[in-house]
Amino acid sequence: MNRIQRSRFGSPQHHRSKAALFPTPFPLCISSGPPVERVYSHTPAAWDNRNYTNPTSLSLSISSMAGHNKWSKVKRFKAVVDAKRGKIFSKFSKEITLAAKSGGGNADMNPRLRSAILAAKAQNMPNDNIDRAVKKGTGELAGAALEEIMYEGYGPGGAAFLIEVVTDNRNRSAQDLRVLLSKNNGTFADAGSVAYQFTRRGEIHIDKGDITEDQMMERALEAGAEDILDSDDEWIVYTAVDQLFNVGNSLRDAGMTPKTQELTYHAATTVTVDDPEAARQLVKLYDALDDYDDTQNLHYNFEIPDEIAETLG
Predict the structure, then answer these.
(1) Residue 191: which domain range?
(2) DSSP secondary-structure letter at 13?
(3) pTM here?
(4) Total domain count for the chain?
(5) Distance between CA atoms of 100 and 91, rounded to whole angstroms?
(6) Spatial distance between the Cα atoms of 156 and 302, rounded to a whole number of angstroms
(7) Is 299 helix (H, G, I), strand (E, B) or coil?
(8) Of 2, 109, 71, whose CA–CA distance to 282 is shortest?
(9) Are the C-beta atoms of residues 302 and 267 closer than 8 Å to each other?
(10) Residue 255 burial class via C-beta count within 10 angstroms: exposed 0-12, middle 13-18, buried 19 and up
(11) What is the pLDDT of residues 206-256, one digit of tens each?
């Protein structure tokens, strides 16, 4: 079984990405606690019928993974700072506008727009801001012509980056990113040279609260999730691309309200950076790319062990 890695840099998460490819029925994997192995099994037929009483082939394991706590806390602090600056609202506005532009302004008929609006509301984005963003996408309000572009790059040690950009000037954005990469020991990569190392997945974050491990497993199985990650004070649920909204809705109906739900990229393999100077350079590059105004999402394939992370504080 492929295991989910845990770390601020290189974990299988949003900007933080790693995918495990599973057959059907697939393993549902939770990483947490001391090394333990628990197996719950079901026949393929039982899986299809959502009958969870007949044990045979769908397995669920819990394994210990290190290297997550330090960087997850740093990233959450940065997210709080971004929210206070209003940066997070700007990103939500762009995503809502693009979703409405590509799939129409009716959230009931546009899964991407539904997910974007739910994520924005979870961060207390005002309804007026949401309505304006939708109307810009449908053309009811004037606004800059935005387009989505995926740029690719490499950092020190061969670490790979996918940079999702939303911009009204692709030439400016491309040049800006070339400069940022060059100044921070990175290189601008040709299209496709990095992207093949990542796969697209749905990602849902849920506060743990009083949700137990067994409850999360049961609900995730019923909802049709692929994987679960135990991430300190939250559960991270992974889904197939076309199941993100359905799984989110199912969990919401079960009383597990997602903090965020979005499509993201997960790297198939990771690069462990155990050289302090290379790690320092990668963190600097990451922050430069993440702080760039046109960056919508940032994904990477490296991880930094806690003993190295502690030296970067």
Answers:
(1) 1-313
(2) B
(3) 0.71
(4) 1
(5) 14
(6) 10
(7) strand
(8) 71
(9) no
(10) exposed
(11) 999 889 888 998 999 899 999 888 887 889 999 999 899 899 999 999 999
